[in-house]
């Protein structure tokens, strides 16, 4: 019993010394994006990576030269920002990355096949990660 109490006191002391982890605020990449539908769920095109890209933060995906990527949305370029698309890697050899959707620079890929036009302009949103 005293072991449990000591462990509880130790954990409480550590909690008081270390504040709760908080999310890091990151600037929005754009205010609008182009999609095929209102929810950006449908694939716009299939692109092939022309160069390797290492993701700079959790919003982006790593891509390797030659990799195929499903494109779901294209951010509307704003002054002082790069041009990014959102997508997911495709193919059995990249199975561990399939289903992960993230941004990548559009300048590093070439569109191989357009499935449908990205003619819906949708505002980008910021999710509130704090508890209500």
From TrEMBL:
Supply the name of the protein.
Answer: OTOR protein
User: PANTHER family in the record, alphabetically?
Assistant: OTORAPLIN
| GO BP annotation list | cartilage condensation
Highest taxon of the source? Eukaryota
Is Signal one of the keywords? yes
Which residues, if any, are the signal sequence? 1-23
The residue ranges of the SH3 domain are 42-114
Q: List the PROSITE patterns hit by this protein, alphabetically.
A: SH3
Fetch the CDD domains from UniProt. MIAL
The protein's UniProt keywords, in alphabetical order, are: SH3 domain, Signal
């Amino acid at each position: 019993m005293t072991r449990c109490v000591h462990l509880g006191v130790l954990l409480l002391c550590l909690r008081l010394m270390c504040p709760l982890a908080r999310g890091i605020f990151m600037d929005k990449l754009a205010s609008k994006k182009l999609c095929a539908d209102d929810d950006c769920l449908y694939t716009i095109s299939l692109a092939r990576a022309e160069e390797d890209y290492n993701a700079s933060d959790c919003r982006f995906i790593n891509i390797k030269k030659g990799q195929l990527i499903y494109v779901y949305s294209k951010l509307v370029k704003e002054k002082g920002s790069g041009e990014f698309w959102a997508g997911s890697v495709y193919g059995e050899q990249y199975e561990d990355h399939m289903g992960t959707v993230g941004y990548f620079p559009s300048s590093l890929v070439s569109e191989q096949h357009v499935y449908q036009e990205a003619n819906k302009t949708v505002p980008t949103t910021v999710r509130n990660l704090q508890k209500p």
